[in-house]
Design a protein that fits this description.
The complex is a heterodimer. By secondary structure, chain A is of the alpha+beta class. Chain A has a domain at 281-530. Chain A is built from nine helices and 28 strands. In chain A, strands 11, 12, 19, 20, 21, 22, 23, 24, 25 and 28 form a ten-stranded mixed sheet that branches. In chain A, strands 1, 2, 3, 4, 5, 6, 7 and 8 form an eight-stranded mixed sheet that branches. Chain B is 23% helix and 38% strand. Chain B contains ten helices and 19 strands. In chain B, the strands form four sheets. In chain B, strands 3-2-1-4-5-6 form a six-stranded antiparallel sheet. The chains are: A alpha+beta, B alpha+beta. At the A-B interface, strand 1, strand 3, strand 8, strand 20 and strand 24 of A face strand 1, strand 2, strand 3, helix 2 and strand 4 of B.
């Protein structure tokens, strides 16, 4: 959070259950939204606000949940309301109204927000300093989707998952759970800067977990989907051959073949039951983008959020090792000199891609770590002055109209290597290593130094060749040590996205969806532990 | 006022049921007020309050069900929502695991509603934050804290004559205090039904002491150590274990309670014989809800008795399939302890580590309930019965099952996150690496 005190009503975050057809009904017309917004902005100004913004949001969600041959649940929700944020007497104030029907509803919310700001100004230490932002007039942005998932009949989606489940069972799985998550955020933003931004944002995440059991030994193993949640819609489930990355197992880029992946997963879950238990020690790690995204998220994305660095999340998510003095020194080696990490709110297909953020800032791309050196953070309008910037980086987000917007992680990615390098070439030079595919267990300390990650698939590399499957693998490292052990990065032919659909932050908690891109990358001499235990 | 009386709630539920044309209809009515205040860097960052009253209606035709919700309560709105739920139900796929609604049930009385908490207002929250921040300001320390309170009710009813009503209040408070140079950090957490039992000042004082005592931490080699886990540290591991006692997963062979060769470990001695864990909705210390989400009565259930697994949780579908009682998951649990204080446990420790809090706990292996996570906000070395010096934080890889077999001693249980847990002294707790985090 930035500064000042705001009203934070805990109104229904997920929305009310509706019939699936309701998700296809058009929201209110943009001209009506503008009238509702102008009423709020005018009311805020007339009550003495120096700044106001309005978010009119319609949030649609559909989740199809199955196991084996059963549809367990179909969730359709809609949430509509208006959130008004103001600065009055130098202090933030926020109020929201569910199902706002007319101008008087939004004007009332604005008046409440101003009253709260004025009341809370007494508790304020220093007034809010908001980075200037030019108005954009009436503009719009849409996720460039090809097939709207909400238009696909429920039955077709349920049938897809049941077909996926049947394929898993046929190929040796004992159990399979599969889910399709689909989200559409219809957001309208207006501010006293003169922006009226209408956005239509889509996200999708098909995923499953396959379980294989050996009843004799009482052991079980699982293998999760290698899909990525994407800023796309149903077209993600129509994979072209060019979307597939072949190798020891097939991985996916901008299209996902769920049926193909579940067949592989069923076989691999069984294979894991008899895989060799890893010998603890130092290994060179070859990390696939389906795995590395999570390591980037935890060890780069979070520690470089300026609000964490400043201490606003100290009681919950924690602070950060990447303190301002390290950034100011201009020579803090976050990673080796081939490490280039950037934030990007514009990347097509990413979960975080929007045209404008939730405080009217046009989205952009910027460097966080350049040639291994820490060069920047992620910051929003009321904090960006602390790092000497005059314009926000455009990474402000609220998960609902009733939640107050705050700094959230942009898509943070590792730039692909500049020299041509394939995965096969990368593996060829490794004497003692482990190739990790898919994300698994994850844990990191509250300042983002020490972490431990698992995965889905682990392959032993001996003298440049894959020697077989391993299990019970987790690696532990320290963020700076780890990124400084980064030895080689494949080129952009291998660059793919992974991501989180439900990244949590704040008290009360809000979720956000964010992608992280990378190509397969080698890290030398990382500490691997064996996680097998007996109870 | 969003907190309806039992009679008001019943009247609305009966009205809804009178509109039903479905085979079965169930109604959930709930509401109340929730408020919060959050602060960081010794200044309030967010605060707010909201009232809510909402009604959920589930209609059933055969094995198809549909739910609709509303927050308007005139007859026309209620009837419209009943029709909407029925319409959604007709469109829904059949649920092969459908179980018919319960008939009338007997529910115990719980003492989960306390008037003092229902009276909390923005001025109370501001004062609570001020008491905490002021203490830190005076000592040149930095406070970050969060208080959330709620006062509300829930009511359930269905077309088979079931009706339940439960008012409840709660307050959760947590505070992290850091030294100005960032080398020390302390933490405290409290939860109560009755706000008169909460002092944000005294909780903050404990966090202050820990912050000051934890500066200039020394590094110890990772390895196996005797640890004393304060309840705020062990609670997440214990809760994770108690959430993993579902019988279906065990029957399916994918739980730590699955038996080699098939079957479940009910009746097996899995823990040290001093381990007894039960739940009781009528507990004065942690009063729970009298019913579970699907209307099953909550009652006193012994989960682990002298180290032996006595009960697991069952969905109604799975219990019917297995021909056993459908025991719902509890809202909180009680672990029996001893009579010693935390100080007594420290005094009786030759060499060990005192842990205030664990953080970022994640599953590593569901087979063995192996978890990883880190110590945080005050970790101290004990020698010859005394706290000697603060130590750097550790990462652990440990299973609560192994931990409760390596039990050395237990202190007096205290309330934490809606449970009663004693401070635990555990031998051979596995720390696998060091963290530089403060």
């Amino acid at each position: 959070m930035g500064a000042g005190a705001v009203m934070l009503p805990n109104l229904s975050a997920w929305g009310r259950p509706v019939a699936p057809e309701a998700l296809l009904e058009p929201g209110i017309d943009v001209a009506v939204k503008k009238r509702l917004a102008d009423a709020a902005l005018n009311a805020a100004k007339s009550k003495g606000a120096s700044y106001a913004d309005v978010r009119i949001g319609r949030y649609l969600r559909q989740f199809v949940i199955t196991r084996e041959d059963k549809v367990q649940n179909i969730v359709n929700t809609e949430s509509f309301g208006v959130g008004v944020r103001v600065i009055a007497d130098g202090c933030w104030g926020f109020a929201a109204v569910v199902d706002a029907k007319n101008e008087s509803d939004t004007a009332k919310a604005a008046e409440n927000a101003v009253a709260i700001a004025k009341a809370n100004a007494k508790l304020m230490k220093e007034p809010v300093r908001l980075a200037p932002q030019k108005g954009f007039g009436e503009v719009s942005w849409q996720t460039p989707i090809k097939k709207n998932a909400f238009e696909v009949p429920i039955k077709e989606k349920a049938d897809l998952l049941l077909t996926v489940n049947a394929a898993a069972m046929k190929n040796g799985a004992n159990y399979v759970n599969s889910v399709l998550f689909m989200v559409n955020e219809q957001k309208y933003f207006a501010s006293t800067d003169g922006s009226y931004v209408d956005q239509d944002v889509h996200r999708i995440w098909p995923t499953f977990t396959v379980t294989a059991i050996d009843p004799k030994s009482g052991k079980f193993e699982t293998r999760d989907s290698l899909s990525a949640p994407m800023g796309m819609s149903y077209e993600y489930l129509q994979a072209n051959p060019t979307d597939k990355v072949t190798g020891i197992t097939t991985r996916y880029n901008k299209g996902y073949d769920m049926l193909e992946d579940v067949v592989a997963a069923a076989k691999q879950a069984k294979q894991k039951l008899t895989a060799k238990s890893v010998e603890a020690g130092k290994y060179d790690l070859i990390l696939d983008p389906s795995h590395l995204w999570l390591t980037i998220h935890e060890s780069v994305g979070h520690p470089l959020e300026l609000d964490r660095v400043l201490g606003y999340e100290a009681n919950f998510a924690g602070t950060s090792f990447a303190t301002l003095d390290k950034w100011q020194s201009k020579n803090f080696n976050y990673g080796s000199n081939i490490v280039n990490l950037f934030a990007d709110k514009t990347q097509v297909g990413s979960l975080g891609a929007v045209g404008w953020d939730d405080e009217g800032v046009k989205t952009k791309k910027w460097d966080l770590v350049k040639d291994g050196t820490l060069v920047n953070y992620q910051a929003i309008r009321d904090q960006v002055h602390i790092i000497g910037e005059e314009e926000s980086q455009g990474c402000c987000y609220a998960d609902n109209w009733g939640s107050v917007q705050f700094q959230r992680m942009a898509n943070v990615s590792l730039a692909a290597g500049k020299q041509p390098l394939s995965v096969d070439q990368l593996i060829k030079d490794v004497k003692k290593g482990i190739y990790i595919i898919g994300d698994g267990s994850f844990s990191i300390d509250q300042q983002r130094y020490n972490f431990q990650f698992g995965g889905q698939l682990f392959y032993e590399i001996k003298d440049g060749k894959i020697a077989g499957m391993l299990k019970d693998v987790a690696y532990q490292s320290n963020t700076q040590e780890f990124w400084n052990s980064c030895a080689q990065i494949c080129d952009d032919r291998d660059y793919r996205l992974g991501g989180s659909f439900f990244d949590g932050k704040g008290q009360p908690g809000q979720v956000s969806a964010v992608s992280h891109g990378s190509a397969t990358t080698r890290f030398n001499g990382v500490n691997v532990i064996n996680t097998a235990r007996k109870i | 006022m969003a907190i309806l009386s039992k009679e008001e709630a019943k009247k609305i539920i009966d009205k809804v049921l009178s509109f039903s044309k479905a085979d079965e209809m169930s109604v959930n009515l709930g509401g109340g007020r929730t408020g919060n205040i959050r602060y960081a860097r010794n200044s309030v960052s967010t605060s707010g309050e909201s009232n809510n009253l909402s009604l959920g209606i589930t209609a059933v035709f055969g094995k198809r069900s549909g739910t609709a919700t509303i927050n308007e309560f005139d007859d026309a709105s209620l009837e419209k929502t009943v029709r909407r739920a029925e319409e959604i139900a007709r469109l829904a796929p059949e649920n092969p695991e459908f179980v018919p609604a319960l008939g009338p049930q007997q529910y115990v009385d719980t003492k989960s509603y306390v008037e003092s908490t229902a009276k909390i207002d923005p001025a109370y929250r501001a004062q609570a934050a001020f008491d905490s921040i002021d203490l830190c300001n005076k000592k040149n320390l930095t406070a970050a804290g969060y208080l959330e309170d709620s006062a509300g009710f829930s009511a359930i009813g269905n077309s088979k004559g079931l009706f339940g009503y439960n008012p409840a209040t709660s307050v959760d408070f947590s505070i992290t205090v850091r030294t100005a140079d960032g080398t020390g950090s302390g933490y405290a957490i409290r939860d109560v039904n009755d706000v008169s039992k909460l002092s944000t000042k005294s909780a903050t004082d404990i966090a202050v002491q820990k912050a000051l005592a934890s500066t200039s931490a020394r590094a110890l080699e990772p390895g196996k150590y005797t640890v004393i886990l304060e309840p705020a540290a062990s609670v997440d591991l214990m809760q994770n274990m108690m959430r993993s006692i579902d019988a279906r997963s065990a029957d399916e062979g994918r739980s730590f309670l699955s038996k080699k060769g098939g079957g479940i470990r009910l009746g097996e001695k899995l823990y040290d014989e001093r381990v007894t864990i039960y739940s009781d909705p009528t507990s004065a210390d942690i009063p729970g809800s009298p019913y579970s989400g699907d209307g099953r009565p909550q009652e006193k259930i012994v989960w682990v008795d002298k180290g032996v697994v006595k009960n697991m949780t069952y969905s109604r579908f799975w219990a019917e399939k297995k021909g056993v009682k459908a025991v719902p998951p509890p809202s909180g649990f009680i672990m029996e302890g001893g009579t010693q204080s935390l100080a007594d446990l420290i005094k009786s420790t030759e060499k060990g580590i005192l842990v205030t809090r664990f953080w970022y706990i994640r599953f590593v292996d569901p087979q063995t309930l192996l978890y990883t996570g880190l110590t945080r906000d005050g970790t101290f070395y004990i020698e010859n019965g005394q706290i000697k010096f603060p130590v750097k934080n550790f990462r652990f890889n440990e299973s609560p099952v192994i931990m409760l077999n390596n039990l050395e001693a237990m202190g007096r249980p205290v309330r934490v996150s809606g449970n009663l847990i004693p401070p635990l002294k555990i031998r051979d707790f596995t720390f696998t690496s060091l963290s530089d985090a403060v």
